[in-house]
Amino acid sequence: MDCLYQGYQIESFEAGRDLWHARIRRADNRPLVINGCPFTRLEVGFAWHDQDSAIADAKHHIDRFKHHWSEPDEVRAA
Asked: Are 63 and 47 in contact (CB under 8 A)?
C-alpha cells in the first residue's frame, strides 16, 4: 500500500507474517539528504501488527524529522 504525505511517498511492506514496516521516499524521486549523505529511501519503524500502524509511524517520522532532511541542491551549494 502506498500513500502520499506532505511531499513524501510512504510504502508499507510486510517483512514477515504480521511484521509491517514502511519506506519513505520523496515524491519527486530526489534523494533525502541527511548530514550530507543522500538516501533514495528510508526504512523506518518497528515491526507493526498492521499496515495502517506502519504508515502512521512513517508519517510521525516525516513530521518529526523532515526539517533535518536537506534538499539535494542545498548540499551541493554548501
From this structure: no
Alpha helices, DSSP H, located in 1-78: 51-65, 72-77
Residue 39 C-alpha cell reads as 538516501
DSSP state of 56: H
For residues 29 and 57, give the distance between their C-alpha atoms in angstroms, rounded to a whole number: 21
State the DSSP code for 31: P
**What's the pTM?**
0.81
Round to whole Å and give the CA distance between 73 and 60: 25
Would you call 31 exposed, middle or buried from its count of C-beta atoms within 10 A (0-12, 13-18, 19+)?
middle
Whether 78 shows a pLDDT value over 70: the answer reads: no
CA 10 to chain centre: 6
Alpha-carbon dihedral sign for residues 48, 52, 58, 62: negative
